[in-house]
Amino acid sequence: MNGKPVAVITGASRGIGRAVATALAGEGFDIAAIARSVNSEGMEILGPEVEKRGVQFFPIGLDISCTTCHAEVVSNILERYGRIDFLVNNAGVAPLQRKDLLEMTEENYDRIMNINLRGPVFFAQKVAREMLWLKGKLQDYKPCIIFITSVSAGLSSPDRTEYCISKAGLSMASTVFADRFVKEGIRVFEIRPGIIMTDMTIRQAEKYTKLIDDGFVPQRRWGMPEDVGKAVASIARGDWDYSAGMVFEVSGGLNIHGF
Ligand SMILES: NC(=O)c1ccc[n+]([C@@H]2O[C@H](COP(=O)([O-])OP(=O)(O)OC[C@H]3O[C@@H](n4cnc5c(N)ncnc54)[C@H](OP(=O)(O)O)[C@@H]3O)[C@@H](O)[C@H]2O)c1
Prior knowledge:
Number of domains: 1
Order of helices and strands: EHEHEHEHEHEHHHE
Oligomer: single chain
Distance between the termini: 55 Å
Bound molecules: NADP nicotinamide-adenine-dinucleotide phosphate
Structural class: alpha/beta
CATH architecture: 3-Layer(aba) Sandwich
Radius of gyration: 18 Å
């Protein structure tokens, strides 16, 4: 059995997930990095970034919406590392095209729900089950699950209704997981990023930069993936050991609704 704690990060090949994986490697976690393919440029960049921090890298190909694939992936991680201490449910997508609520299609709605909500919920369920089992086997074991939602869990955008609904659902999933598992020693947190500079936002960069410059984001700057990585690392270090079920806003103050 591996001695180091192990972190599983979904959507680790780019953006926020890559920054989270790098930050957790810096905290001494061996990394299981999930994305749809292990053969992407992003995974090739991440591997050495993780390993140069003195921990192991295990790339895994999984479409998170494939719930029938989850069991095999979880069992492969346990076979390789013998434990899972930390799960960051980060994989997520935006609508392929922004369309007004009246134009939203069932197909696009289902795509977003399957990737952003149904997949992460059932993946976390499987990992939580293993964490409960591992609690009886490992000493000093402090399992933790994080759901990366979005400020869109609470802010409406009628041109990406399905995204907002998926993130609001995932936010409640985080609360329910926290409630169900806190007494059994698994702590669950939600992190709500604001406008973070990644492939997801790059197509709208001009619009977002104007919003930020106009003060929509009180701290008047883009969020960077590392801002989320630092927040996750602080939870992983144990800085929040006497907390559970909290929502961390990493959004430059977008959560403040002032006049
Ligand atoms: N950027 C923002 O402003 C922002 C704000 C709030 C919340 N978020 C949330 O933060 C998370 C990460 O977003 P990001 O901005 O870092 O996006 P990104 O740069 O587009 O990265 C998305 C990641 O998810 C993976 N992924 C996509 N579909 C997947 C699937 N079906 N199964 C498994 N992995 C999949 C991608 O990997 P492959 O393509 O290699 O599979 C990639 O690693 C998302 O949940 C997003 O909703 C982002």
